[in-house]
Amino acid sequence: MADTPLKPPPAAEAAPHRAPVAVALRQAEPELTARLAALPGLRLVADPDAADVLVAEAPSPAREGPPVLVLAEGAAAVAALKAGARAVLPPEAPAAQLEAALTAVARGLSVLPPGALATLAGREPVPVEAGLTRREREVLDLLAAGASNKVIARRLNLSFHTAKAHVASVLQKLGASSRADAVARGARAGLVLL
């Protein structure tokens, strides 16, 4: 029996390259513009008609053009949805959440906070356990990604002990008994996307 040479496995097909999501701002605030410009999957455009998604900081009546993502909370979030917004996020939403939501909206999906969804459905909303700082929301996002305290420290350029303190603060503020419980509570409150 002759040895047959082994064939190398077929090369893995490259994942299709997706063009960055074109985003326009209704009101170009410097901080929001800088946050969005730093996201690799997005491309800022000046003309709203050339955008895949329009970002606004206040609800507005339904209009023609690209779908709208509104940065609002509470009653303003519900008003934005009733006015035709496709997505609503808190104004202090972490960068990863903004990018994920804008990508989802550009692909035809909606992003709704759980409390707003319950209100629109005529049910009592689940109370949002808020009070998290921007840094704590970033920590919660990393917890949702399964990051250890060491990874959180490295990604956020913090000391290990500071990262550990932020994790403890997130757990305490959410009333969570574990990291997984904090992520689950954060997801139910609309603070983190899974």
From TrEMBL:
Coiled coil location: none
Keywords from the UniProt entry: DNA-binding, Transcription, Transcription regulation
The HTH luxR-type domain, residue ranges: 124-190
GO molecular-function terms, A-Z: DNA binding
Keyword Transferase included in the entry's annotation: no
GO-annotated biological processes: regulation of DNA-templated transcription
Entry keyword Acetylation: no
Family matches, as InterPro entries: Sig_transdc_resp-reg_C-effctor, Tscrpt_reg_LuxR_C
Protein name according to UniProt: Response regulator transcription factor
Organism encoding this protein: Roseicella aerolata
Lineage, highest ranks first: Bacteria, Pseudomonadati, Pseudomonadota, Alphaproteobacteria, Acetobacterales
